[in-house]
Structure formats: C-alpha cells, structure tokens
Amino acid sequence: MYCLVPSVYEVLCGLILLLWNVLVIVVISRKVYEVFRRVDGHEAGIYVARKLIHVLAGGVTVILLPVLFTSPIVPLICSLILATIVYIPHRTGKLMYWFQIPGRLSEVYFAIMWGVIVTSLWYVDVRLAVLPIFFMSCGDGITGIVRHLVNGRRTKSWIGNLAMALLCVPVGYLMYGVLGAASGLVASIVEHFDKIDDNISIPLVSATVLVVPQIVTVL
C-alpha cells in the first residue's frame, strides 16, 4: 500500500522547494528582467525572465523529486500553492510586471500541469512523472533562451525547437530508452505551434507518447 501521509522530512523538503520557487519568481527572475530590459527592452526582459523561471523553478524542482519524495502529495500541494500565487496578480490586476503578461495565464497553466502530470504518473513510473515536466520546464526554457540569443525577440523559429530536441531527445533516451527519446522529439515539435498553450500541450502530448504504447502492449 502507498502511504498517503507525507513524512516530516518530505514536508520540510516541500517547504524548502516552495521557498526556492518563490525566490526564483519574486527575486531572481526580477533581477534577470532588469538586466535584459536595459539591454533589449521590456518585452525581452519578460521573455527571458519567464524562461528562467521554467528552468530554475519547474526544472530544478522536478529533477529533485525522485531523490526527495516517496509520493507526489507534497509536490502536488506545492504546485497548487504556486498556481494560486501567480494567479492572484491576474485576478487583482497587480501583475508581477517582470514576467507576467496581461490576459495570459501561461504560468498558471504551467504550475497546474506540473502538479497534475507528476501526480497522475507517479505510481505508474516516477520517470514517466518527471520526463514530461522536464520537457516543459527545461526543454521549453532552453528553446526560448536560444531564440532570444539568435533572433533578439520572442518568435517561434525552428532554431529554438532544434535546441530543445538536442536537450530532450538524449535526456529522454537516458531516462526511458527509445520511447523517452521519441517523447522528447515530439515535445520539441509540438512546442512550435501556438494553437494550444505549450505549457499544456508539451506535457500532455509527451506523456501520451510515453504511456499509450505501454497500454497498447498490455492489451
């Protein structure tokens, strides 16, 4: 049976990671925004700050999950707290201007999907819980940073998707073999298209690529 009551150790780890995420969101990303704003303008500052949050908050945290936790309960609670923290400014109209964009709830979707995917796949295989979030966090983060360095602005150029694939495909292979590599490649392609927010499409599609073939095999 799985224990539904987290240990004191896991609660403490959750609090530390929650504080780290808040530090990245409120302090570190703001300083990065100021640097890039002075060089490339307000929109560039926001763009780079958002991608930094992807990597340092979502990415670093998900990589540590298998090491620190035996269940997804504490990570899920923390993700919902963070979703609330980043949603409130949209509700009140007092945005955290250094990374939030009026009318765009991408960071809220990011936090919710982070918790939902991790929780849904944890007991199937922890690697399946980690990989789609890694693609959404670090893969998409690297994509945006490379695009900014190459193009100097926010754009859906394929050079960013290539950079994402160069990270996600080998990491996917190392963690889950050919299926993991295929999932990383598909995530890198899906990111290019804007019809659905990529904080929803990347984890959903990559998780589907990882899980569906195994269900078919069982059937």
Radius of gyration: 17 Å
Distance N terminus to C terminus? 25 Å
Q: Determine the mean pLDDT.
A: 93
Total domain units? 1
Total number of helices = 7
Please outline the major beta sheet. Answer: none
Write the layout of secondary structure elements.
Blueprint: H1 8-40, H2 42-68, H3 73-92, H4 106-121, H5 126-151, H6 158-190, H7 198-218
Helix pairs in contact: 1-2, 1-3, 2-5, 3-4, 4-5, 4-7, 5-6, 5-7, 6-7
Short recap of the structure:
By secondary structure, the chain is mainly alpha-helical.
Descriptive key words:
219 residues; 0% strand; mainly alpha
Question: What would your notes on this structure say?
Answer:
This protein has 219 residues and is mainly α. The protein has one domain. The protein has seven helices and no strands. Helix 5 runs antiparallel to helix 7 and helix 6 crosses helix 7 (198-218). The mean pLDDT is 93.
